[in-house]
Fold this protein.
Amino acid sequence: MMRKMLSICLALLVLPLALGAFAGCGGGGDSLAGTYVCTEHWNEGMVGRITFEFRSDGTVKMAPLGGEGTYEITNGTVTVVNDLMEDGVTLQIQDNTLRIENPLGDVVYTKQ
């Protein structure tokens, strides 16, 4: 009986920790939250003009292109979906930068 009670107590203590660890998977996440500014672009006129504002609730705002959307983090990438990009755009997460590989040249956003 004592062993069963101990097992139940241990499960009740561990379960919230496990659920908390998995909560960081998928949409949103505090590690990405913040504003990212375009620092490299194949079209130099876009540098410093395009921003992504990632919020910890899983939403994102793009400027000046406009549009609110959502994002999801999966395996070192973040996928942004909004009305302008219904199929989404995927960016590689590299430390404090986000990168889109493009045949014309990579596009890089740096966290401010």
In short: The two ends are 56 Å apart (CA to CA). Residues 1-28 have pLDDT under 50 and may be disordered. The beta strands are 26-27, 34-40, 51-54, 59-63, 68-74, 77-82, 89-94, 97-100, 107-111. The longest strand covers residues 34-40.
